[in-house]
Every structure is written in C-alpha cells, then in structure tokens.
Amino acid sequence: MKSVIELRNVTKVFGGGKSSTVAVDDFSLAVDAESPPIKALVGESGSGKTTIALLMLGFILPTKGEMLYKGQNFQRLSRRERRMFHREVQAIFQDPFGVYNPFYKVDHVLDIVIAKLHLASSRAERQALKEEALRGVGIRPEETLGHYPHQLSGGQRQRVTVARALLMRPKFIIADEPVSMVDASLRATILESLTKLNRELQIPILYITHDLTTAYHVCDDITILYQGSIVESGGVEQVIKGPKHPYTQLLVGSIPWPDPSRRWGEGQVAVVDRESTGADNQCKFAPRCPFVMPICRERRPPFFQADNGHAVACYLCEDKPVVEGGKIGPC
Amino acid sequence: MNTQLLKLQELQVFYHTDEGAVKAVDGVTLSLAKGERLGLVGESGCGKSTIAMTIMGLIKSPGRIEGGKILLGEVDLTKLSEGEMRRLRLNQVGLIPQGAMNSLNPVSRVKDQIIDGMRAHNQQISKRELRSRVYEVLESVGLRRGVARMYAHELSGGMKQRVCVAIAISLHPQVVIADEPTSALDVVVQREVMETIGQLQQQLGASVILAGHDMGLMAQFVDRLAVMYAGKLVEIGPVKELFAKPLHPYTQLLLASLPGLAQRGVFRGIPGLTPSLVHVPPGCLFYPRCPRAMEICSQEVPALREGDGRQVACHLYDSEVLT
Questions:
Q1: Which residues of B touch A188 (CB under 8 A)?
Q2: What is the pTM of this model?
Q3: What angle do CA A51, A56, A57 make, to 5 degrees?
Q4: Nearest-by-Cβ selection for A210 from B186, B217, B239
Q5: Is the Cβ–Cβ distance between A179 and A190 less than 8 Å?
Q6: From the candidates B154, B252, B261, B266, which should be mutated to test the interface with A, based on the most A CB atoms within 10 A?
Q7: Cα separation of B212 and A90, whole Å?
Q8: Helix axis angle, B110-121 relative to B157-169, nearest 10°?
C-alpha cells in the first residue's frame, strides 16, 4: 500500500509542566493513495480531532512520532517539496462564513489560488477555470461568480470553498466538520459534492466530524477517537451497525434518528463526570464505562481484531487476537 | 387538549430595512397546550428564532410586531409594556438561548448569573435562601454545587448549556422556549442536555417550544411538530403522524433529505433557495422549489386547512378532506 499521508505513533502535547494537555496520544492513521477512501474521524469535542487535522496539514508538528508525506518524513522535506505538500493537501473548514472576506466578491478566493499557482495565462482562461471548478461541485457559476459572500446561502458558500480546494488539484482533502454549520436541508448537497470528488477524481478524503449519521453515509471506514486515542476503527457498516467498544455504543445510541418510533436508548452508558480522565496506565474510558473490569484499571488495552479490519481497544474483546504492531484499520 | 396555555394568532413580525419590510413571520397561528412539547422546524431564515424572541418580548428595532396576538392565558403579550413584560419574563416564560457558548457573561460567576434573575423578580429574598435555590437549580440540571463558583470559561459546552437551562427554569416558568439549544454540541452531550430539559419539563409541568432544524432531534423530543417555510406555517401535526405521512411537499423533501440507516450514500437535498422575504412573490412561497407545483400555486396563497389534529397549507389538498 502506498499512502499519501501517514501519522505514525503521533503524540501532541500542548503546554508544559503541570498544565500540559495531551491532545493526541499515540495516534496512527494512514491514508491510502491507490484506492482512495473517504475516512471518517469521529469523536466528541475535545477528543483531538482538530489537532489531528492541523498535524496532517503541517500547521503544527508532533511532539513525538512522525508524519510521513508520500513515505517521507514531513520535517525533512525540502522547500520545494513542502510547497508541493501545501498545494496537494487541502482543507475545508467548519465555518463557511469565516473564510470569506466580506468586502471581496467570492471570485477572490478562487482568483488568489489561480494567481499564486500560475494556473491561467489569460483572463478567459481564468474564467473558464473558475467556472469548471464550480460546476465540479454542482453549483451554477452564473449564480455565484460576481456575488458577495452574504448573497450566497451557507451551502453555496461552503461549496465554493470546496471548489477552491479543487483548483489546486489536491491529492488529499481534510474536511473538518464541513457541514456542522450548514442547514440540514443543504447538508446533503455538500456531502454529495465531497463523495463526487472522491469517486470521480480519486481524491482521498478525511472527514472529521462528531456526526455519526453523515459519517455513516459518506465514509468507507471510520475511526472513533476518545481523548486523543483510537478506541475503535473499521469499516463503517461494521462499526456503526455492530459497535464493540462501550464508547462507540454510547455514541451510536445517542444518534437522534429521524424516526419518532425509535427513541434514544435508555441510559445505556452512565454519564460520569466529564473531567474524570483515566490515569496513564489504565483505559481512558474506564471512569465512564459501565462494563469496567479490574484489568481496565491496570493496563491500557491493546487493539483486538474483532473482525476483518475491525479493531477495538477494549478488554471486552480479549478473546480476539491482538493486532500486531499497531497496524489497525482496513488498510 | 382544551387547556391551551399559549396561543399565537395571526402573528406578524416584520424587520424594517432600507430595502423594505422583511416579513420574517407572516400570519402564524399556533397554540401550545399545557405540558406539551412543540417543535418548530425550518431552514435558517424561516422565522423560527423570530417567533421565539417575539414570545419573549425581545424583538428590537428594526423588528416590530405588525399584527396578531400572543395570548398567554388571558393576557396578550403584544400589548404589555416593557415593565410588565419584565415581570413576566423568566417568571412565566423562560428562554434557553441559541449558542449557549456565548450567552453567559464571561466575567461573572455562574451563581451570580442565576441569582440575577431571582433577585430581579423578588427583592425580599434572603441571601441564605438564594444560595440554597442556586444549588437546587444546579442540581436539577445535573451539575455539581461547585459549579456555582465557576466562570463560564471553566465549563465545557454541555455544562454551559446546562447552566443556561438552569437559569431559564430557575423561577419555574410555565413555558420554556428552547431555540436550537444543542446546535453546537456533540451527540452524547446533546442527548444529555435534551434529556435534562425533558425531565425538568415533566417535573415542572411546563410546556416547551423547541425551535431548530434538526428533524432527528424533533423526532426524539417533541409531541407535535410545526413546519415553517419563509415566515409561514406549512404544516402542523403530531410528530408520529407527520413523520409517517408528511402532507406538504416541503415536509416530504425535508424528511427525504435526512440520512437514515436504510440506504447508505443516497443524498437528496432540496434544490433551490428560500425566497426573498422583502419582495414576497404572489402565491405559495414554496412554489419555485416544489416538485408538485400546479398552476394555482403561483397565483393563490394556500390557506392553512385544518382537519383532525393536522393542518397543512397546500393546494394539493384543496379538494380533499384531511384525515
């Protein structure tokens, strides 16, 4: 397997001394370049999702472990390679309002990219490029070009940022909560353009979210994060239809399904004080876990292979074989 | 349902801008029974937050109530002076605001923010009683007593939202209005907060209006659902019936656009955009986006027709008797 981006045993600590926060703890994830997947990274707020996005974008460096870009250590890239990296790895952020300067027309965000990367040599060519990119994400250029950001709907604005990312012909897109600030009725359109990019242009996507329902629809495989560590990882059908880790079960049980006859399960997992964090040598979820066993408080669980490509870090799956070398996920 | 607690009658709220009046809420008639949970659902800009703020008497210029009544029991809230409204706010109607992240005062302790409201409504209350009341409301929303001494930045998103719930219910209001109370929270916290609101509503016997755009949350929480589009109600009905058999094409599309567990990877957004509320076109406002539009739809505004607990405003049902 050739990977575009790989995080290998990455730990990121913010601050120092007593007040340090371990945002990401021994995290590994590889994104395949050849059969590009849409991967979901799911976790509650404060679980380290965005830190991982920032690490993958090269905006911050890991405290421990390494990030590999096309098999090379990111920190050892030359200037030219690093430029290439920033072009090929693109992000789509949460807030479709914040990324625009309200004084410029929306064309501006596309024009900058075209100018900086010398993509067009004439005005006509530039126009054609912009229109092509916008059509690629399913919006009509005549409805968006020449307009100011406030004249567009949230869905249109967000899709223009997708179009901007597209102009760079990226090799990898990180979408950090791309639909959480968009109306439910418009979410579908954005998710549709993301899946189209993946299927038609073969661009791997990391979809970061706390919303399991959209993750279920868009993604091929899913990684569940709890306090900076992976608790469960596998194919999306396996994980959402048959969650093995108690935390994943809590997440899946809390999805508000749009079906009045299917109410939230009654308190499957007790909610303990959120501040309680497991000590270093115990399972992080132990203080909140209803199935906690003595061993959970003694040692951190390794990954157990529940199914083909389905790994769970929980002693409840102790009867299953341990995944060797931390190589988890269906890759 | 004879005990109607809150009634909106032909309510109209316009925002007066340079380009003309924005008809944010245009002729909404709605009633809320005692102990009922009513959902108000629609896209952003459909007027659901305006309704919430109007009931609270918090509509500020350029917004103005142009017509209609809001009856709380026998009292018409639109006729009250600001002073009378102040006595009623929090005491009888409580608001859980949108984006609790930003609605707490960052430089004041949680307990002082809870006490503020209590003291404003009862000057005679003693310090000792205030303290015990603060602990009582914090515990009722599932927070530790220690939270009382904390500042907003020391709390997580879910805890902040609980503090907002605590403030809203601190004087045991009859009506609680929750305006997208969980929009920035993740699923587990969302569920905890909604369950807290639900339990308190049952204990207090209060009625709740939940405004939002998350149909999933509505399905989990409310008894009756009102669907709004461009300042008007398009459909009201008991939530189970409405989900099982949506009548209005807009409701149908809204439900179809939701991801369920059934078919994976199928997306159906609603094409088109909401109409301008300044120059309101004639006829049904959903007409340009409606897949089942007819000739009459571009000319005549459909009336909200009633029948057996369900109401719908659509010409498709002009000749039918609703069942």
A1: 257, 259, 267-269
A2: 0.81
A3: 95
A4: B186
A5: yes
A6: B261
A7: 32
A8: 10
Report residue A208's pLDDT band, with 50, 70 and 90 as the boundaries. Answer: very high
At a CB cut-off of 8 Å and minimum separation 6, what does A141 contact?
Answer: A130, A131, A134, A135
Q: What is the pLDDT of residues B123-136, one digit of tens each?
A: 888 999 999 999 99
Averaged pLDDT of chain B: 87
Tokens for B217, please give them: 């949350």
Under DSSP, is residue B39 helix (H, G, I), strand (E, B) or coil?
Answer: strand
Contact B187 A257 (CB under 8 A): no
pLDDT band with cut points at 50, 70 and 90 for residue B108: very high
Q: Which of A45, A187, A254 sits opposite B191 (nearest CB)?
A: A254
Q: How far is B192 from chain A (nearest CA, A)?
A: 8
Of B189, B265, B273, nearest to A153 by CB-CB distance is B273
Q: Which residues pair with B224 in a beta bridge?
A: B38, B238
Query: Which ipTM did the prediction report?
Result: 0.75
B17 forms beta bridges with B20
What are the beta bridge partners of residue A144? none
User: Both tokens of residue A45?
Assistant: 């707020």
Confidence of residue A331 (pLDDT cuts 50, 70, 90): very low
Measured distance CA(A172)–CA(A67) in Å, rounded: 14
Report residue B94 as tokens: 């409580």
Domain boundaries, chain B: 4-274
Measure the CA–CA gap between B315 and A93, rounded to whole angstroms.
41
Residue B170 DSSP class: T
> pLDDT tens for residues B242-292?
999 999 999 998 888 776 666 666 667 777 777 778 888 888 999 888 888
Q: Which residue of A has its CA nearest to B264?
A: A217
Q: Residue B228's pLDDT is what?
A: 93
Give the model's confidence band at A56: pLDDT under 50 very low, under 70 low, under 90 confident, else very high: very high
* pLDDT for residue B123: 80
Encoded tokens for B40? 């108000």
Q: What distance in Å separates the CA atoms of residue A85 and residue A74, rounded to the nearest whole number?
A: 9
- As separate numbers, helices (DSSP H) first and strands (DSSP E) second, chain B gives 9, 12
Are the beta carbons of B187 and A256 separated by less than 8 Å?
yes
**Token duo for residue A187:** 């979410």
Per residue in B168-226, pLDDT (tens digit) is 989 999 999 998 888 767 788 888 888 889 988 998 889 999 998 888 889 889 999 99
Residues in chain A closer than 8 A to B100 (CB atoms): none
Separation CA B156–CA B134 (nearest Å): 19
- Report CB contact under 8 Å: B186, A250: no
Q: What is the pLDDT of residue A330?
A: 43
Q: Which CATH class is domain B4-274?
A: alpha beta
Tokens standing for residue B68: 């209609």
Radius of gyration of chain A (CA): 21
The reply to whether residue A256 touches residue B269, judged by beta carbons under 8 angstroms, is no
Q: pLDDT tens-digit profile of A16-31?
A: 777 778 889 889 998 8
Place of tokens 């869905």: A155
Read off the tokens for A48: 């380290």
CB contacts, 8 Å: B218 with chain A: 258
CA distance linking residue B297 with residue B281, whole number of Å: 11
